[in-house]
Amino acid sequence: MERRSRYGVIAASVLIGLSSLSPIAAEAAVTKITYSNWQFAEPGRGDALRAIVDQFNATHSTIKVEPVSIPYASYATTVLTQMGAKSGPDVVTLDYDVMVKAQAAGLVADITGKVITPTSGFAAYDSKFIVDGKRYGIPWQSTGYALICNKALLAAAGAKFPTTFEEFVATVKATTKGTDQYGFAMRNTTPQEGGWWYDLSNWTYGFGGAWTDSKGNPTINSAENLKGVTEYAKFYDAKYIPQGADATTYRRMTWEGKVACNIDNGSVPTIFSDSNPAIKANLQIGKTPFPVAKNAQILIGTSLNAASNKQAASVKFLNWMLQATMQKKIQAAMGAEAIATKILPPAALLKDKPWLKTYAKLADNGVLVLPAGAELKTAEIRKAVIAQVDKVLRSNLSPKDALDAAQAEVKTILGK
Amino acid sequence: MQKIKQRSPKQFSRKYAHWVLLAPSLLFLAMVMGYPLLRGLQLSFTETNSLTPTMSKGVGFKNYQNLFQSPGFVASLVVTIKYAVSSVVGALGLGLATALLMNRTAKGKYFIRAAITLPWAAPPIAVALIFTWMFNPQYGVINAGLHALKIVPKETHWLDSPTLALPSLVFVTVWMTFPLTSLILLAALQSVSKELYEAAKIDGAGTFNLFRYVTFPFMKPTIYVMTLLLSIWALRRFDLIWVLTQGGPVDSTTTMVVRLFRESFEFGNLGYGATIGTVGFVLSVLCTVFYFLAARRVEESTR
Questions:
Q1: What is A27-140+301-333's CATH superfamily?
Q2: Which domains, ranges and CATH numbers included, belong to chain B?
Q3: What DSSP letter does each residue of B148-215 carry, written as one string?
Q4: Pairing of strands B46-49, A91-95
Q5: Membrane-crossing residues (chain A) (predicted)?
């Protein structure tokens, strides 16, 4: 019996020794990090982004990145709730307004001194990710808004690509043909409140408005904002825009030749041309047709979850993405005019998507849609303003009364 | 003391067996219902941000005070009641009508019963997404069909019109909930003895009186239970409303649950959101109490 048990101990030791050489043990040495980005859930761009992650995994034996795909509609609430509960993905891509909230709540990690500055230098908006001298993320992508028109529809109506607001009104009027064809399209429904805020900001910014002044006081009912909202409501009332159409619907109408013009961001012409290659040659893109050269800007960044215990591996992933070769790949994959660094879009990409040059040229006109000085209350302010504008469109409330009511509500929200 | 000591194991198990059998369910309920309820109640007396849930601050009744003073709350309460009443009446009415029809149909009855369960079996999110497309003003099949029949103008706005959004939402809700109501009412209908119908017919009762004096009294308890269940489901329904309208347009479909979600997860005010949740829970309890009182009255009147 004794001898038997001694052999048993030896056999067990050998097995344990051998098991350390097994693939299971090797796997244990690999640090797995999770990376969330709503773009994983997008058709086309999702696969391209996954290919980039696959490339990282193929070239790194000790770190494995796992994509976390959450649709955009529920992305911010899901990720922030997880991070608030000290869990969630290790690396998170966030809209800038969400990143600001997360930073203020201490949910994103301070990565000062850990990020290697790219050879081409960071894009100008990188400074937005540095708060009180500390870095809380890196830019991922940025895009502004421009006027996109279908040249063929404009020519058929004898209209020209508008450069002033008066020309814009004339063009839109000329290209509207009842419910068969609309001159313009933009969001106007509650389920798309987030996108509607960007669309509406183009109008108010375009007439010289802002949501707050330099001291963070609300300026919702300023004369400039009132002008923007009034003109926007006129378009709605005149039925120049398909009422009730969400972005998916009116973008489809655009590539089907039922909408003449949109004001949209840099990734939208790609959606049009991918959905209907024939429309590509008819796309004419230029500055938004408002008196002031200011438009909404989308800024997206990537941060690390402060609750993650895999900071070193996550930083390695960030630095890998910042390399010039990877930045070019990310730019091609995302079809974006501007990413983390100052790198220029590759010639092949510009040839395929010539509008990127226009969007890049207009980048200086971009203004974030966060109310300056009241960034943490963006969601509440947005809701208050959009709810009143909704009443202008659907309950015959005057723009002035609506913006006055919104101003009062925002003052209460901000405690001013 | 002496007696207890002398109690046999058989007597002991007879006395406590039901508690032992109930214990796992009670424990489960305490964990998944009791604890969240108490935690929600506790949260409602605090100022808690969803981003920093561990740093909450006690504020007494301030959240309740703010809630009852908020015009938005009163509006959402009205929308909730309108939505609950109309969807319960719709589901019960349609459910009763189809149950009566199915009870009379002999041919293909199993197929009809199976087919009618489909809307109820479909996941609410999928239903909401499909109806979003069906209601689409430009491409939706509902507009296309009704416009072809010259019933509505070309681009009728179902989900983005302050007057049509709530009825459209009720329509989808009734479409989803009437099958279950119908099947349960059918089961109740089939428990009515045929002899009773025959006796009533001999007494000269017509179709309406047969229903009023024979069928309906038998179905009353089932109708009460279904009313209670449908009311509670309507009070707490979120998925369908959120996907279809997100409470818009002009807050015409903002129910209390939609307001709760917005406050808790969009604005991060967990404490205030919990206050709305607590008030919603009290409303559900009131519904249940009302049901029990009504049921007892019916029972006493039929004794």
A1: Periplasmic binding protein-like II (3.40.190.10)
A2: 56-302 (1.10.3720.10)
A3: HTTSS-TT--SSSSTTTHHHHHHHHHHHHHHHHHHHHHHHHHTTS-HHHHHHHHHTT--HHHHIIIII
A4: unpaired
A5: none
Question: d(Cα A323, Cα B115) in Å, to the nearest integer?
Answer: 58
How far apart, in whole angstroms, are the C-alpha atoms of residue A141 and residue A297? 11
Q: Which residues pair with B57 in a beta bridge?
A: B47
Confidence (pLDDT) at A6? 57
pTM for this model (two decimals): 0.86
Residue A362: CB partners within 8 Å, gap ≥ 6? A144, A146, A287, A295
Contact indicator for A42, A9 with CB cutoff of 8 Å: no
Using the Cβ of B40 and the Cβ atoms of chain A, whether some distance falls under 8 Å is answered with no
Rounded CA separation A277/A265 (Å): 19
Residue A184 to residues A146, A181, A249: CA-CA distances in angstroms?
A: 13, 9, 13
Mutate to test the interface with A, among B70, B139, B250 (most CBs of A within 10 A): B250
Say yes or no for a CB contact (<8 Å) between A84 and B246: no
Residues of B in contact with A394 (CB under 8 A): 160-162, 249-250
- The domain locations on chain A are 27-140+301-333, 143-297+365-414
Q: For the packed helices A378-394 and A96-104, what is the interaxial angle rounded to 10 degrees?
A: 140
- C-alpha closest to that of A301 among A283, A287, A321: A321
Residue A249: its chain B contacts at CB < 8 A? 136, 138-139
Chain B nearest CA to A52, separation (Å) = 31
CA distance A354 to A406: 40
Interface of B with A in 267-286 (CB under 8 A): 267-268
The domain A143-297+365-414 is placed in CATH, from the list 3.30.70.140, 3.50.50.60, 3.90.550.10, 3.40.190.10, at 3.40.190.10
Q: Is B138 on the interface with A (CB under 8 A)?
A: yes
Neighbours of B169 (CB within 10 A): 27
B56 and chain A: CB distance < 8 Å anywhere?
no
CA R_g for chain B: 25
pLDDT tens for residues B84-115? 999 999 999 999 999 998 888 777 778 888 88
ipTM of this predicted structure: 0.81
- Whether A27-140+301-333 shares its CATH topology with A143-297+365-414 is answered yes
Can you point out the beta strands (E) in A333-407? 338-339, 366-368
State how far the Cα of B197 lies from the Cα of B99, in Å rounded to an integer: 17
B52 Cβ neighbours under 8 A, 6+ residues apart: A84, A105, A106
Residues of B in contact with A374 (CB under 8 A): none
Q: Given A80, A101, A191, which is nearest B248 (Cβ)?
A: A191
Would the pLDDT of A282 be above 50?
Answer: yes
- Position B5 pLDDT exceeds 80: no
